[in-house]
């Protein structure tokens, strides 16, 4: 069939070609970026709501892509998942975080738990608990120094497998947090069935604090978490009012720009030095 330029079909085809070629370029760039160490981790502090002390850090992936600039993890994690690169990337980031924990531990003689984000596909990889075990062994860090953050979507689609994987990770002595709690996937029964240690309440529920309806929701989540013996982290704290409301509602830990943005290794190290020197 002859194509008539300017018809919607021709436009759609051209759009499709552009999309798929840029998707391919993105995949190749990410592959190369992983090889060339263009990806790294920043670390965002989590604060103890009661004492104001540093309670832990969350490792957040960054990609400084040559000629493009800083690419959001939201964008490159999707590429990695779609192309199967996530296993390699996830393993690389986990090792990176654990080596950093080991370095801080050597320097400071102690550690605060560092949380590493795990994508659903990565978590459901058969060998994932074994990978974590190997990385802990090779870096020599105690399991209490590592937390894993998982999101609900994996669990919802595959509850039995998620349960098995998480139990193996808990058996290693690692804490597991449910990330983005309250964004839509999680059913309450799942909380009972999964061996979790922590709930992280999504920024979407924290931002409206101290509005009374938001206070009611966060308070209810904290009560539920307490009944299930789970710690609660409020994420996305940007103001003092939000911090106070989240603490009063029963959140144990607070995280957000109000305390600190995700920090480069050296700045995160300085926070830890302060933590262990007073
Ligand atoms: P997340 O795990 O929910 O991480 C929290 C995100 O909120 C981070 O964005 C963080 O920089 C941002 N944030 C922290 N405090 C505040 C605040 O007060 N206000 C606002 N507006 N934002 C705040 P980031 O670093 O862009 O990461 C986005 C998402 O990408 C993460 O959401 C996580 O789902 C994913 N991600 C990041 N690093 C990794 C990784 O190493 N592995 C995997 N699988 N996913 C990752
Ligand atoms: Ca997270
Ligand atoms: Ca989150
Ligand atoms: Ca989020």
TrEMBL record:
<feature type="domain" description="EAL">
    <location>
        <begin position="23"/>
        <end position="276"/>
    </location>
</feature>
<protein>
    <submittedName>
        <fullName>EAL domain-containing protein</fullName>
    </submittedName>
</protein>
């Amino acid at each position: 069939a002859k194509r008539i330029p300017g018809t919607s079909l021709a436009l759609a085809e051209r759009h499709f070609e552009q999309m798929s070629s840029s998707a391919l370029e993105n995949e190749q760039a990410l592959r190369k970026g992983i090889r060339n160490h263009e990806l790294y981790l920043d670390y965002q502090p989590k604060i103890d709501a009661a004492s104001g002390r540093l309670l832990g850090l969350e490792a957040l992936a960054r990609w400084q892509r040559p000629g493009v600039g800083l690419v959001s993890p939201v964008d490159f994690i999707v590429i990695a998942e779609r192309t199967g690169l996530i296993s390699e990337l996830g393993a690389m980031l986990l090792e990176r975080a654990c080596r950093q924990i080991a370095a801080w531990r050597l320097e400071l003689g102690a550690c605060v738990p560092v949380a590493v984000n795990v994508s659903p596909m990565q978590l459901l990889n058969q060998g994932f608990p074994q990978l974590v075990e190997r990385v802990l062994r090779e870096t020599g860090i105690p399991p209490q120094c590592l937390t894993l953050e998982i999101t609900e979507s994996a669990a919802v689609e595959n509850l039995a497998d998620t349960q098995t994987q998480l139990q193996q990770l808990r058996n290693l002595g690692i804490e597991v947090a449910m990330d983005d709690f309250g964004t839509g996937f999680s059913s309450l029964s799942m909380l009972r069935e999964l061996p979790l240690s922590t709930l992280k309440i999504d920024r979407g529920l924290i931002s409206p604090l101290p509005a009374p309806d938001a206070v009611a929701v966060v308070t209810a989540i904290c009560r539920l978490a307490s009944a299930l013996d789970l710690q609660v982290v409020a994420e996305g704290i940007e103001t003092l009012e939000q911090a106070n409301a989240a603490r009063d509602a029963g959140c144990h830990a607070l995280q957000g720009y109000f305390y600190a943005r995700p920090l480069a290794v050296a700045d995160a190290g300085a926070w830890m030095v302060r933590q262990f020197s007073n």
